[in-house]
Design goal:
Blueprint: H1 24-33, H2 42-72, E1 80-83, H3 90-97, E2 103-104, H4 108-112, H5 120-131, H6 152-156, H7 164-168, H8 173-182, H9 188-208, E3 213-217, H10 225-231, E4 236-241, H11 244-262, H12 272-291, E5 299-303, H13 304-309, H14 311-322, H15 327-340, H16 353-362, H17 364-370
Parallel strand pairs: 1-3, 1-4, 2-3, 4-5
Helix pairs in contact: 11-12, 14-15
Length: 377
């Protein structure tokens, strides 16, 4: 259930809502389409709009400069995408592989100010870095100024098509998830608009990081591999999977935590467990279908349980399978990262017996495939 305001502080504008990086037109569209915000969040919405309007001249200047710069360069290298449902170990794998200096990745500044990362974002970077939370909302993973990030919040600041708009505006939660995850119910023009901004974001990040090949992690892309392959036929894909029963209970916690932190409307009507039960099979079946014909050197699967036990051996196997260069040079950096997180304690979420029965009944094909710790050749 959503929390009721209980003191005057609840009516102050939030200082760190992700929508502060949104452009004014996208913000106006999502607010109108979703019926505004709860009364106590009007101050936050006003502050977000003010931020978008104040940044608009800088954003336009940066877009023009980036367009000019990209015309002078060749196409960006096809990215390496890390796939997998939320809470399947994608972050741990991303954090490890991103230590390889051959890869560029999405920075916190690029997430927070995707339209302004190279100009105004550079100027404001010290302020933005001080505003970063010590740890992610959903787990104990530390957040640092150089931590690699998903691009989904950035894209929610650039386009009305993102499942995050369901978390911000849960009055239309189901519709936002259908549109944001699968582009279901979208016009061809809406999908093409999202695609242009997605490519623009990644080209811009690559430009900002010296043209390096990008390593991108976003669970949403597990349902969108076919589109990624249309854009970058030479892209490589790493799929990390985990026992679906563990994924279920952790994803329920993920949604409940983010709704509590980010929702600008009441969300007590949402049956989070049912949402997870319904969407996991659709996302994972799309991943299986869209990767079935990929050649062995373009797609590799990793069992989280084995990666957790043998991270270096699995990383080396990924490089070997995908014909990626540079493992030996990157290995000392991987070891350094693993040393940093040696004391990391995962959140413990228990699945009730009734919940286990529901999951095993609804997700039986995926539990048969990934339910036990896998040994990958």
């Amino acid at each position: 259930m959503s929390r009721e305001p209980n003191c005057w502080r609840d009516w102050l504008p939030s200082a760190n809502h992700p929508l502060y990086g949104c452009d004014a037109l996208t913000l106006f569209k999502v607010v109108v389409d979703n019926g505004g915000v709860d009364a106590r969040h009007v101050p936050t919405l006003a502050a977000v709009f003010a931020s978008a309007l104040l940044r608009a001249p800088f954003s336009l200047a940066e877009r023009a400069w980036v367009a000019w710069s990209l015309r002078r360069l060749g196409p960006m290298p096809a990215p390496v995408f890390i796939l997998g449902h939320w809470r399947s170990g994608t972050t741990h794998l991303y954090n490890l592989l991103s230590r390889d200096p051959q890869f560029g990745f999405i920075s916190p500044v690029a997430v927070g100010l995707p339209w302004d990362m190279m100009g105004l974002g550079s100027v404001l970077r010290p302020v933005l870095e001080r505003a970063l939370p010590e740890r992610r909302y959903i787990d104990n993973v530390a957040v640092r100024p150089d931590s690699p990030q998903e691009d989904e919040i950035a894209l929610a600041n650039m386009s009305p098509l993102s499942f995050y708009h369901g978390l911000y505006f849960p009055r239309h939660f189901g519709r936002n998830l259908q549109r944001g995850l699968y582009h279901e119910g979208c016009t061809a023009a809406e999908t093409e608009g999202w695609r242009r901004r997605f490519v623009h974001l990644l080209e811009k990040v690559s430009l900002a990081q010296g043209g390096r090949r990008l390593l991108i992690k976003n669970p949403v892309y597990s349902a969108r591999v076919a589109m990624l392959r249309e854009i970058w036929p030479d892209a490589h894909f790493i799929h990390i999977h985990r026992d679906p029963r563990a994924v279920f209970v952790s994803t329920v916690h993920f949604y409940r935590t983010l709704l509590d932190k980010l929702a600008l409307q009441p969300y007590g009507h949402i049956d989070v467990e049912q949402v997870v039960l319904d969407h996991y099979p659709r996302i994972m079946q799309a991943l299986l279908d869209d990767t079935a014909d990929l050649p062995p050197d373009r797609f590799v699967e990793v069992a989280f349980e084995r990666f957790e036990r043998e991270p270096l051996a699995e990383a080396e196997r990924i490089y070997r399978r995908l014909n990626l260069p540079g493992y030996s040079a990157a290995e000392p950096r991987f070891k350094a990262y693993l040393g940093e997180v040696r004391g990391y304690a995962k959140n413990e979420h228990r699945l009730s017996e009734a919940g286990r029965e529901r999951v095993e009944r609804r997700w039986s094909p995926f539990i048969d495939r990934w339910g036990a710790p896998a040994v990958t050749p």
